[in-house]
Each structure stands twice: as C-alpha cells, then as structure tokens.
C-alpha cells in the first residue's frame, strides 16, 4: 500500500484484501479503481465494483474485504479539519454510494472520481508546488461533498454551532489526545462553564466531550493493535488512557470485544489477506509504478467544470404526480406566424431552408408579409409586342406562393394605412389585380385560408373616421373576390390606461366587420434599464400575460369577442447588443408561450435577425419581436423553445409552475424549466448568474412501471446558447465561414441517452442554470 499524509488529511491507494472493523471520527471516501470490494457499514453491506464510490461518516463502524487484485483509494478528512473549514459540518452527514444515486448525478460523481485520481497523482509527483496543488484539489473535493451529498442530522439545529469554537476545541483534542485533557480546562480556555461547554459540545457534535475524546483515542489505539506488537499498557498510555483496564473497558464499550480479542481476530485475518512481508512489499512496489498511476488517467478525461454545477444541492424538491395538477387535457396549439418582410424574400434559398425547417420542427401556419403592392415583389409592367408577356408581373409572387402552398402554409398579409393612401386608387387597383390572379392560379380554397390585417400606427394624427373609411373600403374589395378570407385590425391597446387613442376608437363600433384583432406586447418598452430597481423588474415579469388578459377584458366590455393574434412581442433583452448576448432567455420565452396558449389564437415570430432588422427596425435599437434564426442559420432561443413545446404530444398528465408532463402511446414527455427574472445587465456578472442556478430533485410518481429509453435534451447558455460560442470565437479582425459554421453546428442542446427500469416512484436530479430548459422523453421499450 502507498500512503501519502498531510497535516490535515490522509490519502492512500493500495490493495485492500481485508481492513479490520474500525470507526473513523471524520469523513472517509472510498473509491475502487480496480477489482472489487465489499464494505460493511453499521451492518449494511455495499458491493463496490470498479469506479464505485462510497462515503464513510464520522463514527460509522465499518469493515472492508476486497478481491485479490483490487486497488482502493481512501481519502480521510478528520472532523477537526472539516469543521475548521466548514463550520456546519456537524449539522450533516454525507451520503454517497454511486450505484444507488438517482440519475442526474453522473456529472458530479465523475468530477469526484477525477479529483480523487488527481490528488493521488499530485502526491506521487512530489514536485515544487505539489503541496499547494494537492490542497486546492482537497478543497474542491470538500466543496463537492458539502454541496451535493449532505443530509441534515436530526440532533443539530443550534444557532451557535456555526462559529469557530467547536473547531478550536476539536483541533485541540486531535493535538493533545494523548495527554490528560479535563473538560474544565477546555471550558476555561474558551471562557465557558464546564456545564455549558458539555451541553454545547453535545448539541453541536452529537456526542459529549468525553465521549468524543474517547473515540479519538480509540482510533489511534486500533492502529497500534493491528500494526504493532506493543502490549496493552503501552498502547493505552501512549494514547491517553491511564491504565490498561480503562483502555479495555472503553474499547469493549465501542467494539463489543476486548482489545486482545480484536487483535487476535483481525490481525491474523489481515495477515492472511495480505500475505507475507515479501508479498506485501512487492504489492507496494507495483502500486508505486507508473502503470498503476496510468490506470487513474482514464478518470481525468471528464472535464472539470464547476461552473456547470449549481451552487447548492440537493436543491428544490419537485414532486410530479401523474394525473394531478392540471392533468388530463391537451396542450393548446396556437397558430404560428413567421414574418419574413416582403413576399419576394421567400425566393432566397436560405430563407426557403429556414421556412422549411421551421415548418418541420416548429409548425408554421402563416408566413407574414408586408409591402405587397408598394414593395419589390410585384414586377413593373413592361411594354411588349408579345401576345403573352415573358416577364409576367406576378412571376416572383407566384414562385413564392407556390412554395408556401406546397408546405401548406397560408399567407398573412399586413396592409398599412400609409401605403394605401400614398396613391389610394392605384393601390386598390393593384390589390384587386393580385387577388384575381391568385384566385385563378392557386384556387379559392387556398386563398380563403389567408389572413389580412389592417395596420395604423399607435400614435397618429389621422382622424378615426378616416381610418374607418379606408378599412371599410379594404374590407369591401377583399370580400368582393375572397368572401371567406378573414380580415383583422391592429389594436394599439394602452394597458396602463385601459384605453385606446381616439384615432382607433372606430374599431369599437365596427366590430361586426372585424374578424380578428392583433396587438403587440414588448416588455422592454415598459422598462427603463438605466433607472429601474430590482423590485420593478420582478413586478414587470408577467407583463405580456397581464396585458393580454387586460385587453381581453377591455374587448369583452365593448362586446368584442374576436380571437387575438400577438404579432410582435419580446421578453426582457437588455438595451445593448452585449447585454442581449449574455442574457439567456429560454425559460422566459417558454413560460410566455405556455401562458399565451390559452389566451390567444396565434403568436408571431420573425424568421431571422437579418430580415427583422431590414424590415422591422435598425441596428441601434431593440425592436419588438423574436427571431427564430440568427445570421448564418444559427438558431435563436425561440427556435429551440418552440421545438421542445411542439414535441410535447398526448394528454397533459401533470402541470406545475416549472414543469409540464404529457403521456402518449409511446410513453411520457417532461418539460422542466428554471425561469428566473432579473435585470439583464446582471447577466455579465458570473457570480450573480451562478447564484441563479438551481438543482431540482424530481420525483415522478404514478408512471406505468416498465423499461424505458430516456432521452434528455439540455438547453441552456452553455448547451445551445448561440451567443456563448459566438463570444468565445469572435474577433475584432473578423471571422470566416469555417468559424461561423462551427459556431452554428456546435450551438445546440446536448442529448443524453439512458436505459432505465422505472417503477411507480422514480426520482432523478436535474441541474439547471438560469432560464435553462430540460426536455425528457420516456419511451416505452417494445417487447
């Protein structure tokens, strides 16, 4: 066996055939790197195979038996050192048997294996700086243990226990256990009464001062019994007992046998397991060899990334009971409108590919276009002597509409007051010609599925009667040719005043001529990023839903019951490109989509950033609306958010604040999300963001038992967040197509695949950073 010791901890690696029953007053981590080991802890047997980890808690009674060729790493951290660095140490025990851990703890266990392997390797090098490096690894290990494997002890709860007093007392015991150490002396050194110290010590550590001192002395006595030939008196006196009789009585009270019986039984068994002295030396030499250390390198392959782990665990308990909390229904499928600017943009091959992908993954019902008559889609009339012109006016429009018809996507045409009155007579003449042509070419059934919306600016000096006149004329022209085509209006509702501007009041008494209502809701418009307080951000978090519900109440009050379409909307983004790029919003978008499903008939999105900036705004200000794609076909958060929501099939079997569970003929689907609302400017603060990470301990109750293939898609800033890779690989000198393609291809949610035997009650851990989404499919095994 190799042994490397530090003043405050002990790390060993060796072949353990047998380790006699013992108690260690501290925390031990056993890690099998080769072969097998059977560990009995307080009467319970744990079978460890290669790669398994087991924790031994302070005062646990345990024995180890191992296979002939096993290698076991043992990290021992004494109580006095642990409590010195983690004052709440005695509030908890630490539990980990890697075989029995719930799914979702794989990353944590992998990091623990790596740290233990690194600690052994660092000690073996004995280089300059090794001590500092080893101490760093030790503290990382302790941090991992305290975050992810602690279990509260029932006897703890004293408010005073978090100070350093207990740490000082325990450290003194560890240093002076071989001396007479009366309680009164310790109490005096801490300026306490003996009675108070005794009660305080037991309340904190779970045992009395004298009992603790006895356990420390016995720990050292056991080592002497097994590894020396000294008599009982020598062992007793060396370790703080006044007589061999006192030592024997104390030993028997803990180990249920005398020191003589213990030595005879376990020293002989230990000797038989290890073999003769030559064999023991040979085994030690083998473990010191480069070959033995090389076996540990496979545990270094897992990337050590503490930032990927939440700051506290186990975190929030999330119990999901199948059939409870809003179950037994179908997810609402609102219509999806994708805006592309002018109709001619559909002829762009990249736009075609994006529309097709959005249709396949996200379900697209309408493509939204504008500037049909006054834009560049319709070609100018060309004088020709040809009987049939070879440059037809509607060539571009026909190609674009044919592509949409093949994809079963309807047209959503936005007509503004300004473009109509620019040359009103010409406009309606051109519109009539377009309608007649498309009805002839594409058929009445397809054209009647389109929607037309009349838009006038929110703030306009145009009289209400004038807007009403133009709308009614538009309504008349369209219905003359396509009598089933729906025509709607944009309603600029002011939620803070619960009103409309005077220019738009005409809609309230012409509702019988309006088929649907469109509106917008951009949370960024109601937030002053330079002055708003954190409380204001929290108050604005449900702005889109609140505005929608207030608008519905307003319309109902005026006897208007038309369906609503939310054209342009946005969650908080920040008012700079940098802030926008560091603020991941996946769960915020998902929550909004889920909330709106029961409130609106349709929701709009822009196809990509380039078209949005071309037709919807400019580069210097945030514009309302969410894009599905960034430049170079990179997928924005709205794309993946919609994709996961659209994959949810079957009946909703459970619904909660942070989850949706559905059941279908193939199994179950679970959507988990860690929705966090805060000022987006804080997203540049790494510590702030880490504090908004969360770990859910999810219990699924009531699933049909059986074998399942479990697919887990993780979508967060590091896994699918486009701007993270963009920021890492960007350069002020520009980037080429190779870099751009890499960014796009590597910015996608990660997928994990596992086979699980699930009973009715199944649990797992889900580590989630701020606004992360976790989509899990449980597919029933066939056969």
TrEMBL record:
GO MF, any single term: sequence-specific DNA binding
Gene3D superfamilies: Glycosidases, Glycosyl hydrolase domain, family 39, Homeodomain-like
Domain HTH araC/xylS-type residues, every copy: 167-265
This protein's UniProt keywords: DNA-binding, Transcription, Transcription regulation
The keyword Transferase is annotated on this UniProt entry: no
The keyword Transcription is annotated on this UniProt entry: yes
Pfam families recorded: AraC_binding, HTH_18
UniProt cross-references to PANTHER family, sorted A to Z: ARAC-FAMILY TRANSCRIPTIONAL REGULATOR, HTH-TYPE TRANSCRIPTIONAL REGULATOR EXSA
Protein name: Helix-turn-helix domain-containing protein
């Amino acid at each position: 066996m190799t042994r490397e010791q530090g003043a405050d901890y002990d790390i060993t690696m060796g072949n353990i055939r047998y380790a006699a029953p013992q108690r260690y007053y501290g925390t031990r981590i056993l890690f099998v790197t080769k072969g097998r080991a059977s560990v009995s802890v307080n009467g319970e047997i744990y079978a460890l195979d290669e790669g398994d980890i087991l924790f031994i808690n302070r005062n646990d009674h345990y024995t180890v038996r191992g296979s002939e060729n096993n290698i076991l790493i043992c990290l021992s951290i004494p109580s006095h050192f642990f409590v010195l660095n983690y004052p709440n140490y005695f509030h908890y025990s630490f539990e980990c048997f890697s075989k029995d851990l719930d799914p979702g703890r794989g990353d944590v266990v992998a990091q623990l294996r790596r740290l233990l392997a690194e600690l052994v390797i660092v000690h073996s090098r004995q280089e300059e700086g090794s001590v500092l490096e080893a101490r760093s690894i030790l503290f990382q290990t302790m941090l991992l243990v305290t975050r992810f494997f602690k279990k509260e002890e029932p006897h703890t709860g004293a408010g005073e226990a978090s100070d350093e007093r207990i740490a000082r007392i325990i450290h003194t015991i560890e240093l002076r256990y071989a001396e007479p150490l009366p309680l009164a002396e310790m109490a005096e050194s801490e300026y306490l009464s003996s009675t108070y110290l005794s009660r305080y010590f037991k309340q904190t550590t779970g045992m009395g001062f004298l009992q603790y001192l006895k356990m420390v002395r016995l720990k050292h006595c056991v080592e002497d019994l097994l590894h020396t030939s000294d008599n009982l008196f020598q062992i007793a006196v060396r370790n703080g007992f006044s007589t061999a009789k006192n030592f024997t009585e104390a030993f028997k009270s803990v180990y249920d046998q005398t020191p003589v019986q213990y030595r005879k039984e376990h020293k002989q068994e230990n000797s038989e397991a290890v073999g003769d002295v030559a064999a023991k030396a040979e085994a030690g030499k083998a473990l010191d060899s480069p070959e033995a250390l090389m076996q540990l390198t496979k545990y270094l392959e897992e990337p050590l990334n503490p930032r990927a782990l939440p700051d506290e665990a186990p975190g929030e308990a999330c119990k999901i009971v199948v059939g409870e909390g809003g179950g037994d229904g179908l997810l609402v499928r609102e219509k999806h409108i994708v805006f592309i600017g002018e109709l001619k943009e559909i002829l762009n091959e990249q736009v075609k590919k994006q529309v097709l992908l959005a249709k396949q993954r996200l379900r697209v019902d309408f493509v939204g276009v504008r500037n049909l008559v006054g834009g560049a889609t319709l070609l100018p009339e060309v004088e020709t002597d040809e009987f049939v012109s070879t440059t037809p006016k509607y060539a571009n429009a026909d190609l674009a509409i044919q592509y949409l018809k093949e994809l079963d996507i309807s047209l959503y045409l936005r007509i503004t007051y300004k473009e109509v009155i620019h040359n009103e007579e010409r406009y309606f003449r051109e519109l009539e010609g377009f309608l007649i042509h498309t009805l002839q070419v594409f058929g009445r059934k397809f054209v009647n599925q389109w929607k037309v919306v009349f838009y006038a600016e929110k703030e306009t000096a145009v009289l209400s009667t004038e807007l009403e006149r133009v709308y009614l004329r538009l309504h008349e022209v369209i219905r003359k040719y396509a009598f089933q085509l729906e025509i709607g209006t944009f309603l600029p509702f002011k939620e803070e005043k619960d009103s409309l501007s005077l220019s738009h009041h005409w809609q309230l008494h012409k509702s019988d001529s309006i088929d649907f209502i469109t509106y917008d809701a951009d949370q960024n418009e109601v937030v002053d990023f330079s002055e708003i307080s954190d409380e204001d951000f929290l108050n604005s978090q449900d702005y889109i839903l609140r505005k929608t519900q207030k608008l519905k109440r307003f319309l109902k009050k005026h006897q208007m019951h038309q369906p609503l379409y939310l054209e342009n909307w946005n969650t908080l983004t920040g008012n700079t490109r940098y802030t926008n790029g560091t603020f991941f919003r996946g769960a915020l978008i998902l929550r909004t989509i889920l909330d709106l499903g029961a409130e609106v008939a349709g929701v709009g999105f822009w196809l990509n950033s380039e078209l949005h900036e071309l037709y919807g705004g400019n580069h210097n200000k945030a514009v309302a609306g969410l894009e599905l794609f960034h430049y170079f076909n990179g997928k924005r958060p709205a794309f993946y958010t919609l994709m996961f929501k659209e994959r949810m099939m079957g009946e909703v079997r459970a619904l909660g604040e942070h989850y949706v569970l559905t059941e279908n003929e193939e199994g179950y689907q679970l959507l988990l999300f860690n929705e966090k609302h805060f000022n987006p400017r804080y997203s540049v603060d790494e510590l702030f963001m880490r504090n908004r990470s969360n770990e859910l301990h999810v219990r699924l109750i009531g699933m049909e038992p059986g074998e399942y293939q479990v697919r887990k898609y993780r979508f967060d800033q590091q896994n699918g967040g486009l701007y993270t890779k963009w920021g890492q690989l960007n350069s002020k000198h520009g980037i080429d197509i190779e870099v751009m393609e890499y960014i796009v291809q590597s910015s996608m949610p990660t997928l994990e695949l596992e086979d699980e035997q699930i009973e009715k009650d199944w649990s797992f851990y889900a580590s989630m950073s701020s606004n992360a989404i976790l989509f899990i499919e449980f597919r029933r095994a066939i056969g």
